[in-house]
Write a structure and sequence with these properties.
Elements lengths: L15 E5 L2 E5 L3 H4 L5 E14 L12 E10 L6 E4 L18 H7 L4 E5 L8 E8 L2 H4 L6 H12 L7 E4 L3 E6 L5 E2 L2 E9 L13 E10 L1
Length: about 220
């Protein structure tokens, strides 16, 4: 890790400091160094899920009609990804069981990063980490990569009628957007969550000696 001790370098190949639509540049070697130059970093990930539909009677529907088996996550610049067992199938897990409310954080943790994901009740002026999610059919997969309170916040954005607070529209394509002054829309939404990454690292004038990043979400199918 990048810190006081000589150890195996962490995987930073999933982070970028510049994005132009679907093009990412300026890969990050150190988050702390990148945040001296920018207030937003990007983490584009390819998402896929495996799930099964349970037997059910259309005349007597149950709340649970399917189970997510695995979540597969890959950095866009990598030829190989990692597989995580969804908690739905923890009893038959063949892969690490995802534990974070937003499962891409599990992928950061698997790469060696120390991550703490926390919900905040008030707007927080911190740098932003924007997760750009790519998938074949994210409309069907979004709810399968979130759980607990994080899922509740995603659900609120899906049901939102206020574009200024952010919306996730689930049609043939999944579209995340937030409206600003002059009806300008940005293709992402804020989540009221803070992720601390590698709190042990030495950082210049950062809380707790680590990076705290407000999580933003951009969904791209």
């Amino acid at each position: 890790m990048f810190g006081d001790k000589e150890q195996t370098p962490l995987n930073y190949t999933m982070f970028y400091s510049k994005a132009d639509t679907y093009q990412y540049s300026q890969p990050i070697v150190s988050i702390s160094e990148a945040l001296l130059k920018t207030s937003r970093i990007y983490c584009p990930l390819d998402i896929d899920t495996e799930f099964t539909h349970l037997p059910y009677d259309l005349n007597r529907p149950k709340k649970e009609v399917s189970k997510t088996i695995t979540v597969q996550i890959k950095e866009i610049a990598s030829s190989e990804g990692k597989i995580y067992t969804h908690p739905d199938c923890a009893d038959i897990a063949k892969h690490p069981v995802a534990s974070y409310g937003f499962m891409p954080i599990d992928h950061l943790a698997a790469a060696g990063h120390k991550c703490v994901l926390t919900r905040v009740n008030q707007p927080t002026k911190l740098p932003v980490i924007q997760f750009d999610l790519y998938g074949f059919f994210l409309t069907a997969e979004l709810y399968r990569i979130v759980q607990g309170a994080y899922r509740d916040d995603i659900d609120e954005l899906v049901r939102s009628k206020n574009p200024k607070l952010g919306q996730i529209q689930m049609g043939r394509r999944l579209i995340a957007s937030t409206q600003f002054t002059g009806n300008k829309r940005e293709p992402w939404v804020y989540l009221p969550w803070v992720v601390k990454i590698d709190g042990h690292m030495r950082v210049s004038e950062k809380k707790g000696g680590g990076e705290e990043l407000v999580s933003g979400l951009s969904t791209l199918t």
